[in-house]
Amino acid sequence: MMLDALETDDCSFYIGEKCLYDSAHVPYQRIAADLPGSVSAIHIIGEPYVPLQDTFLVRIRPTAVLTPEQQSKVVMERSTSGKKEVKKVEWQNGWASATFRDFGRFRLVEDETPPEISPLGLGHGPNMSRARRIVLVVRDNMGAISSFRAELDGKWLCFSNDKGKAFIYNFDEHCPHGQHDLKVTAEDEAGNRSTKVFHFVR
Question: Which tens digits make up the pLDDT trace of 124-139?
Fold first, then answer.
């Protein structure tokens, strides 16, 4: 059962009966977007300070018809007070949809920029015999990494994630002394992928 809903020519949202803690007016505003990468207007839904106890569905139609290839690179962004959240979208009849747990400003963004993988203290061919760990920083222009995979000499290697800021591997029995190849792959919500190979000696 839906408690509240709105449908316009290029935006719609649906709020379930268990989504809001109490009855509240959910304002809506549309603003033309001229931000880089935008392929839709900006749709302001609700007030960011109003808490939600469940997700709600947001559907947005782009301002122009997109090819299937272009659609595959589109994500939905929610922003408020300088913070951003990005979700992969599902397409149906020219509409992109995603679910969110907070109100805010929503828009569709075409993202073709792959993540950047940067090592801290690990360059090409360094001697890591005195190091205790490997630290990799993965940055994305949209701020969202959907997957990370590391392989040491062709075998999966477990990295911990420091609250999304860095990926860390503490040396153990899986990395014996000798020469090694570390292959790292990162992918963002739009499916853009980066791969880097690092050579080091331990």
Answer: 568 888 889 999 999 9
CB 30 within 8 A of CB 72: no
Q: Closest Cα to residue 134, out of 158, 179, 167? A: 167
Tokens matching residue 167 = 């990926």
Give ranges for CATH 2.60.40.10 in the chain.
116-201
What is the CATH code for 2-110?
Answer: 2.60.220.30
Rounded to two decimals, the pTM is 0.86
Question: Is residue 93 a contact partner of residue 65, using CB atoms and an 8 Å limit?
Answer: no
Strand partners, 172: none
The distance of Cα 82 from the centroid of its chain, to the nearest Å, equals 16
CATH number of 116-201: 2.60.40.10
